[in-house]
Write a structure and sequence with these properties.
The chain is α+β, with helices and mostly antiparallel strands. The chain is about 50% helix and about 15% strand. The two termini are about 25 Å apart.
Length: about 120
C-alpha cells in the first residue's frame, strides 16, 4: 500500500511519468514506514492526524524522487564511489534507518510527525 498517490507526487514534485513513479511510491512507502519503526502501518494511516498524513505523503514523494535519481546505487553495498576527480557518497544526503536508506529531506518531514522517535 502506498501512502501517497501520483496526484500527491505531481503536487509536491511532478518530475516523473506515472508508470515510472507508481512502483517507486509503493517502495518509498515501505522505506518511510521502516523509518517510523512500523508505526504508520501499526497505527493505520487513516488513524493518524491530518497533519501527520500530509507530512508522510510529502516524505513518500520526496523518497520516491530520491529513489528515482539514485535507485541503482541505493542497494549497492558501497557507501561511496570515486573515480579520478569524480566521487559520490550517500553519507550527507541520506541515512540508513530500519534497514532502508532514506533521504535526509524525507526524514526532516517525518521528524515533525513524532513517529520517528525510538521512545514511543
Amino acid at each position: 500500500m502506498s501512502y501517497a498517490t501520483y496526484q500527491d507526487y505531481k503536487f509536491y514534485n511532478g518530475q516523473e511519468d506515472q508508470l515510472v513513479i507508481d512502483p517507486l511510491l509503493d517502495e518509498a512507502s515501505i522505506h518511510i514506514n521502516k523509518a517510523c519503526y512500523g508505526r504508520i502501518e501499526g497505527s493505520g494511516f487513516d488513524n493518524l492526524t491530518t497533519y501527520q498524513q500530509g507530512l508522510i505523503k510529502r516524505a513518500v514523494c520526496t523518497q520516491a524522487d530520491f529513489m528515482s535519481v539514485y535507485g541503482e546505487f541505493i542497494d549497492s553495498p558501497m557507501s561511496g564511489f570515486s573515480a579520478g576527480s569524480i566521487s559520490m557518497s550517500f553519507k550527507d544526503s541520506a541515512k540508513s534507518v530500519g534497514g532502508a536508506l532514506v533521504s535526509n529531506k524525507a526524514l526532516s518531514y517525518l521528524d515533525s510527525t513524532g513517529l520517528t522517535s525510538r521512545r514511543l
